[in-house]
Amino acid sequence: MSAPSPITVVARWHVSAQDLEWLLAQMPELRQRTLAEPGCLGYDVFRSVTGAGELLLLERYTDDDAIAAHRRSAHYQEMVVKRILPIVSDRKVELLRAIEDT
Hints:
Elements: E1 7-15, H1 17-35, E2 40-47, E3 54-61, H2 64-72, H3 74-84, E4 88-97
Helix pairs in contact: 1-3
């Protein structure tokens, strides 16, 4: 039996127009520090082209343990939990795993 495929996290964050530029300024550091985690396979940030205060984050992790480690990390707790989430007006997070060929 093969190991399960990696997990993709799809996160949508909505912020007010006044908070958007501040949030965008935080993302390079958050991305860099997350990519340095052993279980992180990818971390991409997308901004809505309509100018709305929406970011889409696509993150890939080796497994559930890697996601849990990410959420426990000092940078996640400091940057996301303490600083970013308080300004996020709407947040949706999905965890997806690719369907393996049968």
